[in-house]
């Protein structure tokens, strides 16, 4: 449910707007003065803000400027009974999403509101897309080994459903890539793919990261914040290294999976979410369950479909394909002419012990590109591939 703030000194306008918006299913807050509106907008999360232009003490343009300084991301729709083209142009140039004249027209309000909500979704998707593009250039699963072909077939079968998937495998094997492929081939692929690395977030912050928090929930909670489950609603949430999640967070994730609702930290209101859950771990969760570190009921909720990603040592036939893929990628990133591997260099790579799996292979290809000549030879691989071993 979208949350809307109305900033207007006229009680009748606030009441009329509230009735319209609540009838359409929105949650509405009000502010009678500009400063009160700025305080609310900077301390609480809103999806759209309506703001009057002519107000005493602090007018709408000053409110708009203050919201810009505070980096409030909600679209601001300016309203005025004294509007003209110059005022509207000035408001839009100052960062307003749109301008509506009084008396307010119901259809115009609803159309503008829908457009503002669409813009909010697009902004969030753009952020996620930029992050994704930086991180996964060339994200196709590379390989023709029997093990990889089986994974590709499994992804093709499972992706169109909303079934939860637990992806297992060692560090650097490509579990995230499997998760992204499941999302990209699903019916949710136009919605966000939100990744959470459970091992990288301190245990005291994991619940806030997953479920969001209300202002004042803890010392640094200076404003409301949406959690990853809310941000992923309509799309996919990927819980990476879920075996490292705290017991209390496990209990809340279990409830989210059972009931499709969450509660923000410090909040009491249930928030409905609709996201597909994918999880990954490098741990043996059965052993973690036996030793009391992971909930068995959560395991069974997550492991509807199991996909195991083999180590690179178990799919050595894919190493030449991966090496050629990475050398193209690395040379492009460094802006240098594409280098090549000799036959004995590829053979040497296949004979290497890959404890760090595909991530290690990518790093070593980059090292070889930087340190070696136009053609990388077997002797180069032996010299630079694992100098510390």
Characterization of this structure:
It is built from 16 helices and 16 strands. The protein is 46% helix and 15% strand. Residues 134-138 have low confidence and may be disordered. It has a 5-stranded parallel sheet with strand order 2-1-3-4-5, sandwiched between helices. The chain has helices at 11-23, 34-43, 60-69, 85-93, 106-135, 146-158, 175-184, 206-211, 228-231, 247-259, 285-290, 296-302, 319-334, 343-351, 357-371, 378-384, and strands spanning 3-7, 27-31, 48-52, 76-80, 98-101, 165-168, 193-197, 212-213, 225-226, 236-240, 261-262, 271-272, 276-281, 305-308, 340-341, 375-376.
Notable characteristics:
46% helix; 5-stranded parallel beta sheet; 389 residues; 3 domains; Helicase, Ruva Protein, domain 3; Rossmann fold; alpha/beta; elongated
The CATH homologous superfamily of the largest domain: P-loop containing nucleotide triphosphate hydrolases
Largest sheet: 5 strands, parallel
CATH architecture of the largest domain: 3-Layer(aba) Sandwich
> Please, what is the average pLDDT?
89
Strand order of the main beta sheet, please?
2-1-3-4-5
> What is the domain total for the residues?
3
CATH class annotation of the largest domain: Alpha Beta
Number of strands: 16
Query: In terms of structural class, how would the helical and strand content be classed?
Result: alpha/beta
Task: Explain briefly what this protein structure is.
The protein has 389 residues and is an alpha/beta fold. 46% of the residues lie in helices and 15% in strands.
């Amino acid at each position: 449910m979208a949350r809307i703030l109305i900033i207007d000194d006229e009680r009748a306008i606030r009441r009329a707007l509230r009735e319209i918006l609540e009838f359409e299913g929105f949650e509405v807050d009000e502010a009678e003065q500009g400063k009160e509106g700025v305080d609310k907008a900077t301390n609480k999360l809103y999806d759209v803000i309506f703001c009057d232009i002519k107000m005493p003490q602090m007018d709408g343009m000053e409110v708009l400027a203050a919201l810009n300084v505070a980096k409030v991301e909600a679209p601001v729709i300016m309203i005025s009974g004294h509007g003209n083209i110059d005022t509207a142009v000035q408001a839009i140039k100052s960062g307003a999403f749109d301008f509506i004249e009084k008396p307010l027209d119901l259809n115009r309000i609803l159309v503008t509101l829908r457009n503002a909500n669409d813009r909010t979704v697009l902004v969030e998707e753009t952020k996620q897309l930029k992050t994704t593009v930086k991180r996964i250039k060339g994200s196709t699963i590379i390989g023709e080994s029997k093990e990889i072909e089986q994974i590709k077939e499994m992804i093709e079968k499972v992706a169109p459903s909303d079934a939860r998937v637990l992806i297992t495998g060692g560090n650097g094997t490509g579990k995230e890539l499997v998760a992204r492929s499941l999302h990209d081939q699903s019916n949710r692929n136009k919605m966000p793919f939100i990744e959470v690395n459970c091992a990288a977030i301190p245990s005291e912050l994991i619940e806030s990261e997953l479920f969001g928090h209300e202002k004042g929930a803890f010392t640094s909670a200076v404003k409301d914040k949406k959690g990853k489950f809310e941000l992923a609603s309509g799309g996919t949430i990927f819980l990476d290294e879920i075996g490292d999640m705290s017991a209390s967070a496990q209990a809340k994730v279990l409830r989210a999976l059972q009931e499709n609702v969450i509660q923000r930290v410090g909040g009491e209101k249930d928030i409905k979410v609709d996201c597909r859950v994918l999880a990954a771990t490098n741990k043996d969760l059965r052993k973690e369950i036996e030793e009391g570190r992971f909930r068995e009921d959560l395991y069974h909720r997550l492991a509807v479909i199991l996909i195991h990603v083999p180590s690179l040592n178990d799919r050595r036939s894919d190493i030449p394909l991966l090496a050629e893929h990475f050398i193209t990628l690395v040379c492009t990133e460094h802006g240098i002419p594409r280098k090549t591997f000799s036959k004995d260099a590829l053979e040497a790579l296949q004979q290497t012990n890959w404890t760090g799996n595909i991530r290690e292979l990518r790093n070593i290809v980059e090292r070889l590109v930087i340190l070696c000549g136009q053609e990388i030879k077997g002797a180069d691989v032996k010299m630079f591939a694992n100098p510390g071993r």
